[in-house]
Amino acid sequence: MANPHGSWLWYELMTPGPQASRAFYEGVVGWTIDADSMMPGDTEYRIVHAADGDIAGMLTLSDAMQQGGATPGWLGYVGVDDVDASATTIAAAGGAIHVPPTDIPGTGRFAMVSDPQGVVFYVMRGSSPEDSNAYARTGMGHVSWNELQTSDAAAGYAFYQQAFGWEKAGGMPMPWGEYSFLRGKDAGDAMDAAWGAMMPREKADQPTGWTFYFRVPDIGAAHAKVRELGGTPLSDPMEVPGGERVFHAADPHGAVFGLVAPQ
């Protein structure tokens, strides 16, 4: 994958119930998710398809994984030019390496890491000659926004700037701190190039982490569908700057995500 260093390449749902998750997200977001695992053996991994491309994977959490501390949730993959060099930079900047640089035959090379505040994500260099479009700002069914809540916004920004060259693209005040828009290095006009944001968490007992917003055609219908299919809306739909409407939800296994739609 030739996406620029520091761009979002892929997303991954970790779930203990793949068929229940498959039914939920197909009904809420409109995806098509493989019924069968693409991998042989005990590791189950299914591909999530939007109408115009593959956008994510679904990893089944085995009993052993859960006993080891793995919990349901969404993780993102940041594309890098060199996985080994990025892992070294991340460690030097105060992050941690949870899975060292590892090859996935036919797919690429990856590492599982975390930032200094403990937020887990992946870095990856894909072997496909085609660019990833898993993140597409206005693509229906794609990830439309990437949002970090962190326990230390200043330290978090310094880390990601060092690791990936991310830049601030303006911001807006919130009662608990600035909502800072993010873009890749030298990405052009600040606001048009923003692909996400970071902010301090609202309360000290709130979890930190990345939340990924999936684009749907109708926010009200999606809100009702989340509840109908066993998920939990965590907020009512609300309008955000630019006229779009969003809300947060948890799937039936507790994995948190966002949904976004045009006004």
Automatic annotation (TrEMBL):
Signal peptide positions on this chain: none
Q: Which InterPro entries match?
A: Anthracycline_SecMetBiosynth, Glyas_Bleomycin-R_OHBP_Dase, Glyas_Fos-R_dOase_dom, VOC_core
The organism sits in which domain of life?
Bacteria
* Span of domain VOC: 7-126, 139-262
Query: What CDD domains does the database record attribute to this sequence?
Result: SgaA_N_like
Protein name listed in UniProt? VOC domain-containing protein
